[in-house]
Specification:
63 residues; mainly alpha
Length: 63
Amino acid sequence: MIVTLSAVFLFGLLTVVLLHGRYVGPLTAIAVFLFGFFVADTGAAHLVRDVLTAVADAARNLS
């Protein structure tokens, strides 16, 4: 659960920075948000969560 909340915070912050810097427009941000929302409702959500957990575990064990 901590990894999920951290990922939500980081991606939310990245979205705000990209919108503020005008690297992406509001419609692009909405499209990407909706894409992520609908992917989370498919069978791919479990795979994405597993990959992110594996990456977080690998980053934690780098030391």
